[in-house]
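Chapter summary example.
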Amino acid sequence: MILKNSVKNFKEKKDKQIYLFDLYAPFNEKKANDTLVCGIDLWFLLKKHRTTLELKYFLENMYTCKDRFCHFCNWRREMKYKKLTYQFIDELHKQQRLRYIFLTLTVPNCHINNLRETIKKMNLSFEKFKKYGRFKNSILGYIRALEYTVQKDDNSMLHPHFHCMLAVEPAYFSPDKDLYINQDEFREMWKKALKLDEFVSVDIRVVRTDTRHKTRPSVIAEMIKYTMKDTDITKVSDFEELTKQLKNIHNFSAGGVLKGILKKIKVIDDDLIHIDEEDKLEIWEKLERVLMSYEKKGKKTDYFEKKRVKLNV
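The structure predicted for these 313 residues follows.
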């Protein structure tokens, strides 16, 4: 079993995360240092399956900075978001038949200095939006994610928008029912909630299901988006201002039959190390503990083995 294969993804994410030190260093030394040491040391356990004799490395411990812009931590969050959300929806499917649609709600682009106020207005508008009779009668629940991207032609301008996954009953698509909300209706409802006369973009897409009418894992992956791509952050005109604008801003919200997912999401940052539960099962025998450290040797920066300890279990 080659450990190098196990750390390949860690190296890829760590390489992309290093730039955060330079972004934070001018105004927040602690944050800069926290992001620098994030994921720098990885402790793995080599285990052997007691039945199949398969050898496998499991991540046992590492330091995670949990910064909202950290590409390394967001990679770990993404895996947990996907897994927990899919598990939740899978369990919900056992209780009631549901279909899902994607809804994207936009607002006019805003200057980075106005991002906080813009997001505040979006949140208040969404509260109005979901209380409209048309929405309440047709939509059983929602998961809402905030995303804000940098405009290519002006790095001081941001494009904030909501990605929503809406749960509906199968009859929502029936022509005999007055439940279906088309794109024009959604747009007018959103404009009304925003109190805007100008054009805003609204996009709806039906989520495909498998033969058992279950939501596909790939759909969950599409929904769990992050509020800022790593390449976007490097283009922001004023990173310090961006951190101020987003302080205590929550990126995810849920309601209706999907509200329960919030309980799982809120505790994700408590543990960004263990993604799979199988490493806790007693069918795996612990053989070795291995330390891999991210460092530069010559012209190469990579994870190199620093220590290997045999375990007498």
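To summarize the output: The CA atoms of residues 171 and 212 lie 16 Å apart.
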